[in-house]
Design brief:
With 468 residues, the protein is of the alpha/beta class. 45% of the residues lie in helices and 12% in strands. It is built from 17 helices and 13 strands. The strands form three sheets. The chain has an eight-stranded parallel barrel, surrounded by four helices. It has a three-stranded antiparallel β-sheet with strand order 5-6-11, with no helix packed on it. Helix 12 crosses helix 13. The chain is globular. The N terminus is likely disordered.
């Protein structure tokens, strides 16, 4: 309860700042001083001049100085190009990060999702470097850096998150029936190690609630497209996905009490696939009892066949059905990986996400008392383990299947290592939770620098480069 006034104060501040920025931008040609003068004069012209209370001399001096600074600052901002101003807005989010660090992890997460849903986050107006553009599954990505599932579990903030500059985002995991997940507390920060342990247990509002949100957004975009006066070019059609400027993935899970996992996933496919640019079968969360057994060769083969059949029996337009991926765990033996690779190749799976969180506790975190908490570990300590699994899977599939590298990425160099190890796309989560929006343009710029440094003209050229 104590956090509510602060949350409202923050929301009010952000809204007032956004309104001020829009007013300044609308009057950029005349500067903020001119805009204020115009507004003041127009008020006077109506003959309804407001009564100005008499202020003491010190008060008038302070008011005059403040107004002068605002006018001067606004006049300067009005001369700044859009790219520079956009950079300032992203850098400004660094000032808010310490505030989030003071909150309970789940409260901070809730507030971050709300901020993105309500547009209290910066919007990326700068174009991505051409070297970052790529096409996967017939879909054009402006960059390969995405947001992993788990952040926006219920598709509340798709538009705001894509506007941050991610090439794609993944919502979920979504379960057929709403469920609360495990009791709180269930998220723990290991700050010094740049890690998080969670045991949320697929807390979800269910497929119906998510379908309503995605359906509303889908309809909004279609309306915008039909009302546009400019005819779309072929490039415009290919750019982005069903959710707007970026690509949207939907991650499907099963309910804890369900005895028929395949039925749960099929329900998700039937209800949500029409809104997804790709679908993910999550069989690797460590927080749902028995879920990881679905990664076995026979179990996975049977499951994928049923889900593919459910997807393919639906009516699809020219674009065809959404690609189907499987997200696997990092805690797998070589035999397990060989089985998964064999199933993926035989059934022509569209991709694999490598990897989910780990139940292991690497040496880097063992000294932290919170390492004793049960749940999946994510963040920097997961990087080496998940990257080694990625390398192994790239070799087992001989590069025939697109892989998404996920686990421990906190810099452009980390993303580049995943790509060289075999990833076509990469995903963030924990580093984004710690670093906030400013991390996204930083990683993209660093990744572009790594590619250009080593002479690669595109991301695709660098995929699996360590094995050539």
């Amino acid at each position: 309860m104590a956090a509510m006034p602060l949350k409202r104060l923050l929301g009010g501040f952000v809204q007032r700042t956004a309104a001020f920025t829009q007013h300044a931008a609308a009057n950029r040609g005349m500067g903020l001083g001119g805009a204020l003068a115009r507004r003041f004069c127009s008020s006077s012209a109506t003959g309804k001049a407001s009564k100005i209370p008499h202020l003491p001399k010190k008060g008038r001096l302070l008011t005059g100085a403040t107004l002068g600074l605002v006018i001067a600052g606004g006049a300067y901002v009005s001369t700044v190009d859009e790219a520079t101003f956009c950079g300032w807005m992203f850098d400004a989010t660094k000032l808010v990060n310490p505030f989030f660090a003071l909150l309970d992890p789940e409260a901070a997460h809730r507030l971050a999702v709300t901020a993105a849903a309500r547009g209290w986050v910066p919007r990326e107006k700068r174009h991505d470097a051409p070297v970052l553009e790529l096409e996967v599954w017939g879909r054009k990505f402006s960059n390969p850096v995405g947001l992993a599932a788990g952040f926006d579990k219920n598709a509340e903030a798709v538009e705001g998150l894509l506007a941050l500059g991610f090439g794609f985002i993944e919502v979920g995991s979504v379960t057929p029936v709403p469920q609360e997940g495990h009791p709180k507390p269930r998220i723990f920060r290991l700050r010094q190690e740049g890690a998080i342990i969670n045991r949320c247990g697929f807390n979800s509002e269910g497929i119906v609630a998510v379908a309503k949100r995605l359906g509303a957004q889908h309809g909004k975009r279609k309306l915008a497209e039909t009302s546009s006066t400019a005819p779309p070019t072929n490039d415009d059609v290919k750019q982005g996905g069903k959710a707007g400027p970026g690509i949207l993935g939907v991650n499907l899970g099963k309910n804890k009490e369900s005895e028929d996992a395949a039925s749960d996933y099929v329900q998700g496919v039937h209800t949500l696939s029409q809104y997804a640019d790709y679908l993910v079968i999550n069989v690797s969360s460590p927080n749902t009892p028995g879920l990881r057994t679905l990664q076995g060769r026979k179990q996975l083969k049977d499951l994928v066949k049923k889900i593919q059949a459910a997807r393919d029996e639906m009516q699809w337009g020219e674009e065809g059905p959404p690609p189907l991926l499987v997200k696997i765990a990092p805690d797998l033996s070589k035999e397990d990986l060989e089985d998964i690779a064999a199933v993926a190749v035989a059934l022509r799976l569209d991709g694999l996400i490598i990897s989910n969180t780990t139940i292991q506790r690497p040496d880097a975190v063992r000294s932290d008392p919170l390492a004793e908490e049960t749940g999946g570990l994510s963040g920097k300590p997961l990087f080496d383990l998940s990257t080694s699994i990625l390398k192994e899977m790239y070799m087992l599939t001989r590069g025939k299947i697109p892989l998404i590298g996920c686990g421990g990425i906190s810099s452009g160099e980390d993303a580049y290592k995943k790509i060289r190890a075999g990833a076509t796309l990469v995903q963030l989560y924990t580093a984004f939770a710690y670093g906030g929006p400013a991390l996204i343009p930083q990683i993209k710029a660093e990744l572009a620098g790594c590619l250009e440094r080593d002479g690669f003209k595109s991301v695709i050229e660098a995929v699996g480069a360590d094995y050539r």
